[in-house]
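Q: Okay, next protein. This is Pimeloyl-ACP methyl ester carboxylesterase from Geodermatophilus saharensis. I've checked the sequence twice, so it should be correct. Can you predict the 3D structure?
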Amino acid sequence: MTQASSATGSAPTVALVHGAFADSAGWNDVVAQLLAAGVRVRAVSNPLRGIEFDSAYVGSALGQIPGPVLAVGHSYGGAIITNAALRAGNVVGLVYVAAFAPDEGEALQEIEADSKDSVLDSALQQWQYPGEGGQTEVEFAIDPEQFHDAFAADVSEQQARVMAATQRPISARGFSERTGTPAWRSLPSWAVVATGDRAAGSDVVRRMAERAGATITEAEGSHVIMVSRPEVVTDVVRQALAALAT
């Protein structure tokens, strides 16, 4: 496939936004495969400090990428691109990878409460950090002993231990702050639903993707399907690029 082009004649840059308990390294194999296919790609750091702050930061980062952008979000990163894409002004499509696609007024903690597939809540540990004005803020990390089962069941035990040791905690604001106008209402979207997702929950991810009107690809895999099966994610991204080129 040749590199996709948008209505403006410029090929979209693929912007990859990681989720909670992770960083951009989770995209490494997807990045390598996209680069090999001649696709421009950039990984955007997600601060993990809450929906409002993170959406403003990521929206600014996306907006500074020259030309059109295809925004790809994993997990909590899906909620961020949902809120950030319209701020950026240059996003032409969205790809959700085992990701949340919340609607206006929704909070992730409420969405997760309805999942029968997710075990994440019982695997979380609570930490504290200093906030503004001397206030104490709360953040969450995954218990390293439960990380493999809850987050990355289809990678090796050794790899899961490394991922658990290097995870980035997320502010509780990420789960409690509410979504604004969702970009999927006005932008085309695609979604990868990992059938063995025990973190976000396959049921929640599927339901939200359907509601967003996304083109859905279901594949066997855990919540970190971009790590365990990067070719699946890469293929969906390239499908989105091809669709945007027509």
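A: Here is a summary of the prediction. The chain has eleven helices and nine strands. Confidence is low (pLDDT under 50) at residues 1-8.
Q: Noted. On to the next one.
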